[in-house]
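#struct-help
A.M.: can someone run this one for me? Single chain, 380 residues.
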Amino acid sequence: MQSQIFQTEKCIAQPVTRNIGNGAFGSVLSFQGYRFGEEGDVTGELVFSTGMVGYMETLTDPSNLGQIVVQTFPLIGNYGVNTSDFESRKVYMSAYIVHEYCPTPSNFRSQFDLDLFLKQNNIPGIYGIDTRALTKKIRSKGVLVGCLSTSLPSHMESAVLANWTIKDAVKNVSCTATKQHKVSLPKFHVVLWDFGAKENILRSLLRLDCDVTVVPSNTTSEETLALKPDGIMLSNGPGNPKDNSSIIRELRKLCSSNIPIFGICLGHQLLALANDGDTEKLKYGHRGANQPVKDVSSGRTYITSQNHGYTVKTDALPLDSTISYINVNDGTCEGLTYHSFPGFSVQFHPEACGGPHDTEFLFQQFIDLMEGGKKHATEY
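D.P.: on it. Structure tokens below:
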């Protein structure tokens, strides 16, 4: 993995490319900018997001744990901060990089400005740099490890960056206790496995008259089945899916239960691994609210919201599965349908926060699967 250093002194950001051969730093590409948000040094995985709106949803997405996010849209902060847009209880990203920060938001929904929000959540940021040039570098070199700092720390040597990694990603964002969410007239009961679930997944299920029980990532298959769910939802989340061997093992057991399963993002990858598929890291990932995917069966293209750095390998698909959606830009797998159990999964985010609502119908597809399961149980 390449390495990148950002140095912000009132205003300096300085990325450095690491010489992998001997661990020394090679050529230097410098950016100048201005600090906003919290003070302090931070290291993280440098990625970019292409969304034109939805910066609050990006900031509060648990899938961004340990990442320094570069926003490609040039103006950020113009509509302020509204807590109704939050996708989690806190900010998990390491730092935030924008071209132009708006300190005077103008929107009737705004509660306070972005600078204050970042300070409240101990997140450093930098603005005033050429984010277009930085994004092009990430696209060219692949995902980089970076450091945001007010001065170049003496300890920040190439070996430190080379060995940096996101550890215990899912554990750090998952809830720690089971929590129930009930509607007045429930039609179904869904167990939502929380690997870093966005709030709008929960809201989408509640809107469709589902009672939802959110469970921690370390919940066993036996504990899940004891809740007597009509369906199981596997959420999004951060990190390398292969780091979650215990979750994959429990998922493998659930696939034989004949209970409908719907996986989103990390949930899609984990379900694939549980069925002997394989995953790999993308060069720079898919992040933003404008990612095109094609429905393989109809040929129709949908614009989707995405935030992931890994993908299910198309040459190592899970057993007894077929690809349902592909990414129009690079041909990677964006969805799978399983034939040995009632399950399907997508790499993108049909709950669409922020982003287009093109694929919200997938939640109804999940409802239909649960309806079919109930009908089958009644008949037999």
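A.M.: thanks! Residues 1-28 have pLDDT under 50 and may be disordered.
D.P.: also worth noting: Residues 361-379 form the longest helix (19 residues).
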